[in-house]
Design brief:
about 725 residues; Immunoglobulin-like; 8-stranded parallel beta barrel; 36 strands
Length: about 725
């Protein structure tokens, strides 16, 4: 290397523009000599370890460039002894990062660049590794348009000159091993764009942990010492027949379910202590957590994610979250995570224009910007972005034993013109509005999840009539396990909002869903989105006086729990929370001191257990064989009656009265002669109702009605639902 080349590299290093640090730092060969060069801007003196001991290095530049020349090699990897420029002249020893070779294989880089590396989180980011017999931290980051990338942190005074990284040219991945770096130290990446010279300071896209908001630094990960105790659950899950099993989900926002009296969040471990016994007692099979991936703003509810591999530090550490999930499994409760690949925020410290260019997003805002949410859209056609997102899904399922992913805002990903006017979007290569890259991504996601994690669910929040969302990829579908039935939810809530006197004119809102109920594997949700932003709580959606509102909520829950499809309710629905959900406050638990709210809670609990313990209410949710109308045309009285069947032919009878008028002697056809036992009545005094009912059992009579050979006259309570089980009438 010529003197001019050396001076050029020196100038680049001092000015934080050095593209290839290994060309100047570390071990160099000059003619017949060995040269070791180090940059120690915060040290006064440096020695290098050789076969005869520590030998002094010469300071050749006042900024802190030290050199050692010899005809023999130092001990590799060489160790340095340094005297710091602090008042105490502290002396310590350290390995030079540039004494270590790069570790990431060309094969892994190839898979990453092809969008096929599902465990990129084991390659990029901060990885505790052993290099040349020395423990330390390997850092790697994808920044193909950078001139220089450095690791900055508490360990180097946040000085971008100290630890510049080496690029793998073909891949755009930068790498550096820093020996003996302990965990839980703050770090970021400092990136200089090669075209503009812009300096960007970014958190690690693959960071496993972040410091507590509003600070944004990544934390060097500590090795997890957690020992899982959920082997029985995981083994059983692999063979779980979820198509025919009960699935009843309680949607939870971890920061507002309950809080300490002083406003502090419950930790993951405290939630395990307090939330899980409640979920178990109430009879839910699963909980769905609104996003607990790292995010900067509480008010985003977690949906503006900045840490796609990091459990939010608001509630504790990754091992604390592992404890939470593990405890769920030991108590027989599954855990589904709300996962957000639809968009990411514009925060400059995170993914947005990561290396000074549109790296994770599209350059053109007609493709890459969500107007509704003020966020960027992932470039699903870029292979490295695909590796990033697929690896994120893999990470959560693998590292935390999660039982499923609910994918947010799927419709916004499927349509290029989503919430856009003419001229605000670009068509695909065929001139259509379908996002072909997103479609391919979903198929790859679902193939990976179902192949790698048997028994794990993927649930799509998809609000349109896109065909085959929950159909296998080999049949042309997107491959999700299930799809939220948004049409059913909106029609049902619209109907329930009507004054009972007018419901006869809207009867089809309850019956229409049966025309498409089996085209997908549906979940019937009453989610968080329906109890915010002026929409009112379920209780407030009900017309009438207070008594009618409570009765309406109980009736609504009966209708949901007996309709074909799996179930989901947002926290607070189960006890008729009156106020809209507020992210910065806990639920109004004091309401349970009132009998009316406690009654709704009791009704929800008994319904949940009835649903779980009655095969007819869940085994054939996705088959026409599991449902049969008795009467869907009694519009004048706003009454629905239908049957739900199990795989063995057993059935239950459901009758719903959507008016406050009790009906006595209401004749109904039944499929078999025998005794019909009233197993649930939402009007029970125990639930806060008026206690109108059928006194236990009704025996059918051989009087044809509604196309059945047998029938019975029942009493229908006001604004209530009743469930009957059948028992054969034994001969004397």
């Amino acid at each position: 290397m010529t003197t001019s080349q050396t001076n050029f590299l020196l100038h680049a290093l001092i000015n934080a523009q050095l593209h290839d640090p290994y060309a100047y730092l570390g071990l160099q060969r000059t003619h017949n000599q060995v040269l070791v060069r180090v940059f120690r801007a915060f040290d006064a003196q440096v020695w290098i370890q050789t076969s005869i001991g520590f030998e002094p290095m010469q300071c050749v530049h006042p900024e802190g460039i030290f050199e050692w020349r010899s005809e023999s090699m130092p001990i590799m990897p060489y160790r340095l002894r340094v005297e710091a420029k602090d008042p105490k002249h502290t002396v310590y020893e350290a390995y030079d990062p540039y004494a270590f070779a790069l570790q990431i294989s060309d094969h892994d880089l190839y898979l990453f660049n092809q969008g096929k590396l599902w465990q990129t989180y084991r390659m990029l980011g901060a990885q505790p590794v052993r290099n040349a017999g020395v423990d330390g931290m390997r850092f790697a980051v994808w920044a193909p348009n950078a001139e220089r990338v450095s690791i900055i942190g508490d360990f180097n005074h946040w000085d971008g000159r100290m630890h510049p990284m080496k690029v793998h040219y073909a891949s755009g991945v930068w790498e550096l091993f820093i020996p003996e770096l302990p965990p839980n130290i703050h770090y970021k990446f400092e990136i200089r764009n090669r075209n503009s010279g812009e300096i960007l300071v970014k958190t690690d896209p693959y960071a496993k942990q972040y410091e507590l908001r509003p600070s944004t630094a990544s934390l060097i990960p500590a090795h997890s010492s957690y020992h899982w105790q959920d082997t029985t659950w995981m083994t059983r899950r692999a063979d779980w027949d979820w198509l025919h099993a009960p699935l009843n989900i309680l949607e939870i926002h971890a920061g507002s379910w309950k809080r300490h009296p002083d406003g502090r969040f419950y930790t993951y471990r405290e939630l395990a202590e307090h939330l899980l016994p409640y979920v178990q007692e109430m009879g839910y099979t699963h909980i769905e957590l609104m996003p607990v991936s790292e995010h900067p703003l509480d008010e985003s509810w977690g949906y503006q994610t900045t840490g796609y591999f990091a459990v939010t530090s608001r509630f504790g550490s990754p091992d604390d979250f592992r404890f939470f999930v593990d405890t769920c499994h030991q108590m027989g409760i599954g855990v589904i995570l709300d996962w957000v690949p639809a968009h990411f925020p514009q925060d400059t410290f995170a993914l947005a224009r990561f290396d000074g260019t549109a790296l994770y997003e599209h350059e053109d805002p007609r493709l890459g910007f969500h107007q509704d949410w003020g966020t960027y859209i992932f470039n699903y056609g870029r292979n490295e972005v695909k590796s990033f997102l697929l690896s994120s899904a893999h990470y959560w399922l693998s590292e935390f034993h999660l039982d499923g992913l609910r994918v947010d805002a799927v419709a916004s990903m499927l349509y290029l013109d989503y919430s856009r006017k003419n001229g605000e979007w670009l068509p695909n290569k065929y001139g259509g509005r379908e996002n072909l890259e997103a479609i391919d991504f979903f198929r790859e996601l679902n193939i990976m999840v179902h192949g790698e994690f048997p028994g794990t669910l993927t649930l799509a929040e998809e609000s349109t009539a896109w065909p085959g969302v929950s159909r296998p990829t080999y049949a042309g579908g997107l491959g999700f396990s299930m799809k939220w039935n948004m049409g059913w939810m909106h029609d049902t809530l619209s109907y329930m909002h009507q004054d009972p006197i007018y419901r006869r004119y809207h009867h089809e809102q309850l019956t229409f869903s049966q025309l498409y109920a089996y085209t997908e594997n549906f979940v019937l949700p009453f989610s968080h989105d329906e109890v915010v932003h002026g929409k009112g709580s379920l209780w407030n959606k009900m017309p009438g006086d207070a008594w009618q509102k409570f009765a309406g909520v109980r009736l609504l829950l009966v209708y949901q729990m007996t309709s074909p499809g799996k179930k989901l309710n947002f926290m607070g629905n189960e006890f008729a929370q009156q106020r809209e959900w507020r992210v910065n406050h806990e639920l109004d638990w004091h309401l349970l001191e009132q009998q009316s709210h406690a009654g709704v809670q009791a009704a929800a609990r008994d319904l949940n257990h009835c649903y779980q313990n009655t095969p007819a209410l869940h085994q054939l949710d996705f088959s026409t064989e599991g449902f049969h109308w008795i009467d869907c045309q009694d519009t004048d009285q706003s009454i629905l009656s239908y049957l739900r069947y199990a795989m063995n032919g057993s059935f239950v009878l459901i009758v719903l009265n959507f008016t406050p008028v009790p009906r006595t002697g209401y004749r109904i056809g039944v499929p078999a002669a025998g005794i019909y036992r009233e197993i649930f009545n939402s009007d029970s005094t125990y639930y806060g109702g008026s206690n109108v009912g059928n006194l236990g059992n009704i025996t059918s009579v051989p009087e044809p009605w509604m196309g059945f050979a047998n029938s019975m006259a029942i009493t229908l309570p006001p604004l209530a639902g009743v469930i009957f089980s059948w028992q054969e009438l034994l001969a004397d």
